Amino acid sequence: MILTSILDNDFYKFTMQHCxxxxxxxxxxxxxxxxxxxxxxxxxxxxxxxxxxNNMQHLRLTPExxxxxxxxxxxxxxxxxxFLQGYRYNPDEIHIAQxxxxxxVHVDGxxxxxxxxxxxxxxxxxxxxxxxxxxxxxxxxxxxxxxREKIEHYKELGITIADFGTRRRHSLAVxxxxxxxxxxxxxxxxxxxxxxxxxxxxGVKPVGTHAHEWFMFHSAKYGFKMANMLGLxxxxxxxxxxxxxxxxxxxxTPVFFEQFDKKFAKxxxxxxxxxxxxxxxxxxxxxxxxxxGVDPLTKTIIFSDGLDYEKVAAIAAHCRGKIGMSFxxxxxxxxxxxxxxxxxxxxxxxxxxxxxxxxTPVVKLSDEKGKYxxxxxxxxxxxxxxxxx
Length: 389
Prior knowledge:
Layout: H1 11-23, E1 28-34, H2 45-55, H3 63-72, H4 78-86, E2 94-99, E3 102-110, H5 111-114, H6 118-132, H7 140-156, E4 161-163, H8 172-185, E5 190-193, H9 196-202, E6 205-206, H10 212-222, H11 224-239, E7 245-247, H12 253-259, H13 262-267, E8 270-273, H14 278-291, E9 300-303, H15 309-319, E10 324-329, H16 331-334, E11 345-352, E12 360-361, H17 376-386
Parallel strand pairs: 4-5, 4-10, 5-6, 7-8, 8-9, 9-10
Antiparallel strand pairs: 1-3, 1-11, 2-3, 11-12
Helix pairs in contact: 2-6, 3-4, 7-8, 10-11, 14-15
């Protein structure tokens, strides 16, 4: 079994699942694998992936893990933790097929169940790809050296940083080494991991709030014009001020800021940048807070888009003294092992809210047009409705 813990997943999957159970327990969702990098998969890959997916049905929340969540995350209801203790992955929710060098993966089921599949599916695809293609990574000692060197350089910038690298990591083994090294040498700089299992094992904070799919589902239920506002309202309804970092670019940041009014600007601790020019994003965020009468220095931007040292250093220099900042580094931490990192995603592409007569295609219109996902006709409709040109 490649995955050994049900918590080997990104924290925002659990925080969103908690909300879905409370607010949308009968909603359904569909996800699909998108091979952005056009990677060629070897013969028999689908069968190997299927076996790994089937084995996930044996994962379960342990008493130790439940206690960790109860103590560390008091905003998660005890009833949710009881649910999670009884949750089991259902491999029947996953369709896997292979056509030559192309692999097809679809997820279909109740949203409160299928929401946990995305991240472990991606990490499995990455790890099995390297294994099945016989690609050898650098030795453990080199992984430790590279990671230590990086975190020591980040410490010199006087910033805080978290590991966001579960989805496109080389392997669980590398991820473990990376987080252990960050914890050992990153004092005052390394603040946590999005991976709940590794956060627990290393005594650090699990970090994250919500993902694009939260707002994508809201568009299917309430329409594009209401998706951001009601997505934020429902988040506040459940968490009452906890987990206060809002994701801004599901339908472009300018559209988001139109509804990120004074109430939300004051209530949320900050926003997360995930696409587009980070410096322009910082400037527009600072300007927005000032326009709403909010001191930007009381707020934080979490930068999380394809970060490396040079990019982080430039952002830190630009933002220092203007707004709070922190950084989530993903693949550059967990897949810097001498091999080409996979460029893959798993995205929700259809949703069916409770009582809806049919499925509705959902889309993401990030601040980088190359990252648009979803049905082309629906993308054009969203752009027209939201006046994105």
